[in-house]
């Protein structure tokens, strides 16, 4: 070499080898030898043809090649010689020089290459030793660095490594150069970018993978900013054509799966374009299967301007150590008898037509059995080009048809033999549907017989012999291999048989978990798989979710379908190329096995023929294929003065970060801001935010006392809602005070609250979270109890909790133990405890005596919990009459609440005894109160348990106890405007609130209870309002909870159902709750408020509620417990309803049974459904009622229809609630009707509607917000008030109604708790406020009216249900 | 308009985007699950999950709202802290004003 410059000293030998190698070869091939100094003149003509795109395919490169090669080397060297003296020779300069010297024609182009060489880097080339060195890889790489190389390596031998090393070196040598790696599919691109990165670690910020999914403008940007591109050939081609690809900077192009470079495939087009520019770059083509014929390989070589073929096969000495043993088994499968028959029939047909064609001289006269579709195609082409002259042209059409038919028949035959009868049958069937084939064949007897045979075979389900063989192989394989770690791929050429295979595999059992892996295109009968699905399938295949993949050809190539132990080729007659690819899926990292299933006969022959073919091709490629192929010269990219010397380097490779996942960036960002923080600040942040993912969450309930007065503001004034919060908080706190006659208790409560808060804070979220688990609950409860002054209560709670756990539906637990239970059900003990503690304490002291007295009962715990309020209520109820029985019920309820067992018994008792039912009403009230209390808590617990959303709720819950206290104190709940309204309107409001709260509570199941308790215990009105507020608040959270929890277990479901069965469920609970609440409220007022009026109102409300519940008071009572039990509650409600409806129907016993079931906590849903059905049956009137309310609300008939549908749906879905609502609504309407129109109660929807319209804007509003039930009850109450006062809230209510209706619809459609909640709240707020205001005014009058109404209604209803209180519409 | 310094819209946007991305990812994950389970024979879901975006004015508005919110929170908490004689606003101070603050916004 002339280049004796200082640069070259060490690299000399290496470089020389290569260069001279190429030169020698060129000489051999071209039989032309010339010295290193070639004249420039001859070079030009050669060069041009070489790179002209049109020349790509043409042969006869020999001369140009050699010359070219020589020239290049020579010219470069000469130029280099000139530059030796320079410190930093530049390619650019060199090129220019070359251009000047050798290729004048290039001058116009200016710079052929403007890529600088890094002189230092060019002294060496790097070979990574991160992976064990393999000689063949090393030597191929060495070749590929300096000449355009086609690497033909069997699969799994590390072609990608060669490419990566070459790329990495070019990356180093040419700091400005751009390197392109093309792979024919998107998944491959993604796979290769990662593989290359993991081999040589080219910095990822300079690397990009681009597919058609990236917009061209973005790509243009990337082309400028990045240096290493992994692209699909299509993208590459497009970008070259559009000019966005900066071709001038290209230094290296790697072509994966290069055997595709045939014809006009993007690879060829792209390379031609590049050569036309021209661009000097290094081409590296990779493939496992260069081609199935010598000719095809030559095409590839021509198209890609390959100058060296590096071929290795498994038997080569330097490769064999790395080749794993791959056992190839060929299994011959005999065709089934029937298949043979069918085949013969088909052959008969074929023979006739083939004979005809032969007679015409168009088809060679040979054995028709050996004809193949391609023979036919060739013959047809020949015929088209040169039809036999003796044939009249009129016959041409016939001949064409014959050809078509024959081709189809042969295809069917092929399907028959290689894929079985079904695909063949489907093909035949399809072809017989239309087209010339149908015309020709549809009356052919043989075809018909063949078809019949196929049909018979298919209907018999006789297995395809191939399929059964395949299953055999597969089962054997999994017997001897671990079915967890072993992976199998089954290849089939045909999607139809993929489906058959899948079907067959599905019968094998669970040892085989199969998935199909097919292309994207949607076929006629079979849909394709999107790439997303494909990826998912592969992912599951890797992780073990599947152990068998049934793939079409898309699984064959390149995709790194991990290591597979067994490959089954379902069809053998595929090109050897594809066979190699298929086999390449196994034996990559360890030994593998390939099973080829071939049918005897043509398929087998075809397979053998193709195998022989491929062997012949391999021969051609020996020794680099010099003897068989013509090669092209290629430029040496590194000037000869550089003799890069190999350097083995351990590359440090950063972890590959898939694009799109910006882990890196995020990390950097967090670090960035952290740098700016002082240690103090960092600690602060760590304190609050870094403890866990959830981090610290501010508590909203931590400082209830601060919510009793407006905080000082800075710029933003307090909102109306804040005002309401403050009001309600004041009420609550005041209530607590009043209620807690014992200051100690109160203080204890507060302390408890504080303690709890403290605990909560300490325990943090852990508590809440832990509370989620039922087991944890008791502990928490205990803790809380300890914290709470009344430890006895705590024990009681504990008792209750276990009971709850024992199997009562969560709702039950919530309701009963509500105090305690909340803890149980929800797991958030703290919340429950706080409220419960208050209630419990009060209730204990008072309740113990009272409850024991009234109910007698064994249910002291509950009684205690129920406190004096219950007693009072009981007392009040007693005087009231129908409600007198209530006290009795109450104790049982309370007892049940405390003791689930007791509950069940109570339930039964309730069901049995009407009086008990009445008492239930009272109990319900108590329970309701408790339930309310519990429910909010419970719901939050549930929320917590269910999900993150609940977290807020949890916080709320935790805070709830404080909040509850706060509520009691302040009486104003911020969350619900309703609460404020309810406060204002006293009892009626309470009722409404209760109703509202109850629904919410019902949703929450517990939330309402707490509120109810508070009212009952203390100032009923305030309490009620507070409770409502709290209930609303709670309900909001519960709604969320329910939503969140949407998929909990049965218990959860129960809870959900009651609380959340979306709107409908909520409604039922609400209705039940409302019924209960109303009763409770009534009781509470009577009990608590010394004022007779209030009591009356309460009574009225109760009556209303009862009236609403009417006959259903029992039901409601039942529902109350049911609410407590939620799930059971639903059923129970239904039962109650049913009971109420007993009047009309025969459900009494059944209801009782249902109730019992409910109490047991089983079959809630079924029962509910049944109940709903029953209800439906019961209630045409109900439906009417529903319609009426809706109509009333909207006052539009159109709306009513929807509403009806909605209601019906809601009824069905929410059956209990809806029923209750209906009942209530009916009753209320009845009452209203009685009051106003007195027409048949509940009979005519028109009447109802009228009533509602007239009387119940509020009504409607109530109904709407509460999802009907509670709202209905409330609305009834409101209606009563409204009757006197008119419809103030109507507008709002109507709006709400519409919203509600929509909600209801949605709810009906699915479980839309969330929307309903929000809407409810919103709607409720406005409506409630208005309604409350009106109600307050009207209450007195209403009460009287209610009472009046109630009486008649009761009568009417009583006819149906003797037990029903029938207070509603006595007017 | 820019009398008072407010949050950097880019920052707010980045935060929003972060949330949106997370949601989109969740959605995509869910869909992917569905796709695998329900789409065995399934139709290719070509639905692209587009990230939510916000226009410039909406971002500005958000910034301003957030600024007001934060200022108000800090000021109110500061009042509480002062009343307690503390010189440092602690989380507990914030908790005291939080319910009403949230309702005010």
Automatic annotation (TrEMBL), chain A:
Coiled coil: none
Domain Helicase C-terminal: 473-625
GO BP of this protein: double-strand break repair via synthesis-dependent strand annealing; interstrand cross-link repair
Gene3D superfamilies: hef helicase domain, P-loop containing nucleotide triphosphate hydrolases
Bias (Acidic residues): 1164-1182
Region (Disordered): 755-810, 1029-1048, 1155-1195, 1346-1371
Keyword Transmembrane helix included in the entry's annotation: no
Any one GO cellular component localisation term in the record: nucleus
Entry protein name: DEAD-box ATP-dependent RNA helicase FANCM
Organism: Punica granatum (Pomegranate)
TrEMBL record, chain B:
Domain of life: Eukaryota
Subcellular location(s) per record: Nucleus
InterPro entries per UniProt: CENP-X (IPR018552)
Keywords carried by this UniProt record: DNA damage, DNA repair, DNA-binding, Nucleus
GO terms for MF: DNA binding
A GO biological-process term: kinetochore assembly
Pfam family, one: CENP-X
Nucleus recorded as keyword: yes
CC annotations in GO: FANCM-MHF complex
Residues spanning the signal sequence: none
Main location: nucleus
PANTHER family: CENTROMERE PROTEIN X (PTHR28680:SF1)
Family listed: Belongs to the CENP-X/MHF2 family.
Protein's UniProt name: Uncharacterized protein
Organism annotation: Punica granatum
């Amino acid at each position: 070499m002339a280049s004796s410059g200082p640069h070259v000293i060490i690299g000399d030998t290496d470089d020389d080898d290569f260069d001279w190698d190429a030169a020698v070869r060129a000489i051999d091939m071209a039989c032309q030898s010339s010295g290193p100094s070639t004249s420039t003149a001859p070079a030009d003509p050669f060069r041009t043809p070489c790179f002209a795109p049109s020349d790509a395919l043409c042969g006869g490169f020999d001369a140009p090649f050699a010359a070219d090669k020589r020239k290049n080397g020579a010219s470069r060297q000469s130029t280099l010689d000139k530059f030796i003296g320079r410190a930093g020779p530049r390619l650019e300069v060199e090129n220019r020089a070359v251009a000047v010297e050798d290729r004048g024609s290039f001058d116009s182009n200016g710079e052929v290459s403007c890529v600088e060489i890094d002189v230092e880097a060019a002294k060496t080339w790097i070979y990574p030793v991160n992976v064990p060195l393999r000689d063949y890889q090393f030597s191929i790489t060495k070749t590929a660095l300096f000449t355009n190389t086609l690497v033909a390596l069997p699969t799994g031998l590390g072609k990608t490594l060669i490419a990566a090393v070459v790329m990495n070196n070019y990356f180093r040598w040419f700091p400005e150069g751009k390197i392109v790696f093309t792979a024919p599919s998107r998944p491959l691109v993604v796979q290769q970018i990662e593989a290359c990165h993991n081999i040589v670690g080219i910095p990822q910020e300079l690397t990009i993978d681009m597919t058609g999914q990236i917009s061209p403008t973005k790509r243009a940007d990337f082309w400028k900013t990045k240096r290493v591109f992994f692209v699909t050939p299509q993208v590459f081609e497009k970008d070259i054509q559009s000019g966005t690809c900066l071709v001038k900077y290209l230094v290296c192009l790697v072509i994966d799966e290069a055997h595709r470079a045939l014809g006009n495939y993007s690879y060829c087009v792209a390379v031609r374009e590049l050569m036309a520019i021209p661009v000097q770059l290094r081409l590296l083509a990779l493939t496992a299967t260069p081609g199935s014929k010598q000719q095809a390989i030559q095409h590839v070589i021509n198209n890609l301007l390959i100058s060296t073929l590096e071929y290795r096969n498994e038997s080569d000495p330097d490769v064999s150590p790395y080749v794993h043993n791959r056992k190839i088994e060929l299994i011959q499968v005999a065709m089934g008898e029937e298949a043979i028959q069918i085949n013969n029939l088909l052959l008969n047909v074929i023979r006739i037509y083939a004979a005809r064609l032969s007679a015409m001289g168009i088809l060679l006269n040979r054995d028709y059995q050996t004809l193949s579709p391609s023979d036919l195609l060739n013959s047809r082409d020949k015929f088209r080009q040169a039809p036999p002259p003796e044939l009249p042209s009129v016959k041409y059409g016939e001949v064409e048809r014959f050809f078509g038919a024959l081709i189809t028949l042969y295809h069917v035959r092929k399907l028959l033999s290689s894929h079985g009868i079904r695909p063949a049958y489907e093909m035949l069937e399809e072809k017989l549907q239309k087209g010339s084939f149908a015309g020709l064949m549809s009356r052919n007897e043989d075809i018909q017989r063949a078809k019949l045979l196929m049909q018979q075979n298919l209907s018999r389900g006789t297995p395809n012999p191939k399929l059964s063989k395949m299953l055999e192989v597969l089962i054997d394989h999994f017997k001897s291999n671990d079915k967890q770690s072993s992976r199998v791929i089954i290849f089939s050429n045909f999607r139809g048989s993929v489906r058959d295979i899948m079907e067959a595999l599905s019968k094998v059992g669970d040892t085989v978990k199969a998935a199909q892996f097919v292309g994207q295109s949607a076929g006629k009968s079979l849909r394709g798989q999107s790439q997303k699905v494909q990826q998912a399938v592969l992912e599951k295949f890797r992780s073990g979710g599947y152990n068998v993949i049934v793939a079409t050809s898309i699984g064959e190539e390149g995709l790194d379908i991990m290591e597979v132990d067994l490959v089954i080729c379902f069809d053998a007659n595929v090109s050897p190329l594809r066979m190699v690819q298929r086999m390449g899926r196994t034996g990559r990292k360890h030994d593998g096995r390939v099973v080829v299933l071939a049918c005897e006969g043509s398929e087998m022959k075809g397979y053998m023929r193709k195998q022989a073919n491929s062997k012949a091709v391999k021969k051609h490629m020996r020794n680099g294929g010099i003897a068989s192929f013509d090669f092209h010269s290629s430029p040496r990219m590194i000037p000869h003065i550089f003799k890069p010397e190999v350097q083995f380097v351990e590359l440090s490779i950063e972890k590959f970060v898939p694009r799109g996942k910006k882990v890196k960036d995020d990390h950097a960002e967090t670090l960035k801001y952290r740098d700016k923080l002082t240690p103090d600040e960092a600690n602060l942040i760590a304190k609050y935010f870094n403890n866990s993912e959830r981090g610290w969450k501010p508590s909203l309930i931590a400082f209830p006392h601060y919510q009793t007065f407006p905080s000082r503001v800075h710029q933003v004034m307090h909102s109306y809602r804040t005002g309401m919060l403050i009001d309600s908080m004041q009420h609550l706190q005041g209530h607590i005070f009043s209620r807690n006659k014992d200051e100690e208790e109160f203080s204890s409560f507060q302390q408890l609250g504080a303690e709890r808060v403290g605990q909560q804070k300490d325990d943090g979220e852990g508590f809440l979270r832990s509370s989620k688990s039922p087991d944890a609950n008791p502990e928490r409860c205990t803790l809380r109890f300890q914290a709470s002054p009344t430890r006895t209560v705590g024990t009681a709670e504990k008792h209750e909790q276990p009971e709850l756990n024992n199997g009562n539906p969560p709702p039950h637990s919530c309701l009963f133990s509500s105090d305690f239970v909340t803890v149980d059900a929800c797991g958030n003990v703290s919340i429950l405890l706080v409220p419960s503690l208050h209630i419990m304490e009060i209730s204990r002291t008072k309740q113990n005596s009272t409850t024991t007295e009234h109910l007698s009962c064994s249910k002291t715990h509950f009684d205690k919990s129920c406190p004096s309020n219950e007693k009072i209520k009981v007392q009040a109820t007693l005087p009231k009459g129908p409600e007198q029985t209530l006290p009795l019920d109450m104790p049982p309820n309370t007892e049940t609440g405390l003791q689930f067992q007791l509950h069940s018994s109570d339930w039964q008792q309730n069901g049995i005894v009407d009086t008990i039912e009445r008492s239930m009403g009272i109990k319900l009230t108590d329970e309701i109160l408790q339930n309310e209390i519990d429910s909010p808590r419970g719901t939050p617990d549930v929320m917590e348990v269910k999900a993150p959303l609940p977290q807020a709720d949890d916080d709320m819950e935790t805070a709830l106890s404080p909040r509850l206290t706060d509520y009691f104190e302040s009486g104003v709940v911020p969350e619900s405007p309703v609460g404020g309204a309810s406060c204002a309107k006293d009892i009626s409001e309470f009722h409404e609130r209760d109703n509202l709260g109850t629904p919410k509570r019902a949703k929450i199941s517990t939330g309402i209870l707490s509120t109810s308790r508070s009212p009952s215990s203390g100032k009923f009105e305030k309490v009620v309002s507070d409770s409502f507020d709290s209930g609303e608040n709670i309900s909001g959270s519960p709604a969320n909870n329910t939503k969140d929890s949407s998929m909990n277990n049965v218990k959860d479901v129960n809870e959900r159902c009651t609380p959340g069965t979306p709107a409908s469920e909520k409604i039922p609970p609400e209705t039940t709750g409302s019924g209960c609440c109303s009763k409770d409220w009534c009781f509470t007022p009577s009990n608590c408020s010394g004022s007779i009026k209030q009591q009356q109102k309460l009574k009225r409300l109760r009556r209303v509620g009862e009236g609403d519940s009417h006959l259903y008071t029992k039901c409601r009572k039942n529902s109350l417990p049911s609410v407590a039990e939620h799930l059971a509650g639903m059923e129970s409600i239904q039962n109650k309803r049913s009971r109420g409806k007993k009047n009309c129907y025969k459900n009494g016993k059944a209801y009782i049974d249902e109730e019992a079931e409910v109490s047991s906590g089983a079959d809630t849903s079924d029962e509910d459904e049944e109940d709903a059905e029953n209800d439906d049956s019961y209630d045409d009137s109900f439906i009417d009622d529903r319609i009426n309310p809706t109509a009333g609300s909207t006052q539009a008939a159109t709306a009513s229809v929807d509403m009806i549908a909605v209601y019906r749906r809601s009824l069905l879905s929410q059956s209990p609630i809806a029923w209750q609502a209906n009942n209530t609504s009916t009753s209320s309407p009845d009452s209203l009707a009685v009051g106003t129109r007195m027409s048949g109660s509940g009979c005519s929807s028109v009447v109802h509607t009228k009533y509602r319209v007239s009387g119940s804007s509020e009504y409607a509003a109530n109904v709407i917000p509460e999802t009907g039930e509670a709202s209905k009850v409330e609305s009834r109450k409101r209606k009563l008030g409204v009757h006197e006062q008119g419809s103030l809230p109507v507008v709002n209510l109507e709006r709400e109604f519409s919203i509600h209706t929509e909600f209801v619809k949605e709810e009906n459609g699915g479980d839309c708790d969330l929307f309903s909640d929000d809407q409810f709240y919103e709607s409720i707020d406005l409506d409630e406020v208005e309604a409350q205001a009106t109600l307050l005014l009207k209450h007195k009058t209403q009460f009287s009216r209610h009472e009046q109404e109630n009486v008649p209604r009761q009568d009417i209803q009583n006819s149906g249900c003797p037990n029903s209180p029938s207070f509603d519409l006595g007017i | 308009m820019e009398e008072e310094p407010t949050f950097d819209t880019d920052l707010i946007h980045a935060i929003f985007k972060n949330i949106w991305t997370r949601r989109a990812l969740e959605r995509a994950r869910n869909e992917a699950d569905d796709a695998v389970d329900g789409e065995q024979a399934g139709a290719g879901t070509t639905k692209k999950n587009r990230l939510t975006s916000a226009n410039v004015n909406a971002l500005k508005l958000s910034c301003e709202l957030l600024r007001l919110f934060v200022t108000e929170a800090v000021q109110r908490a500061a009042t509480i802290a002062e009343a307690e004689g503390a010189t440092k606003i602690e989380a507990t101070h914030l908790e005291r004003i939080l319910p009403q603050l949230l309702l005010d916004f």
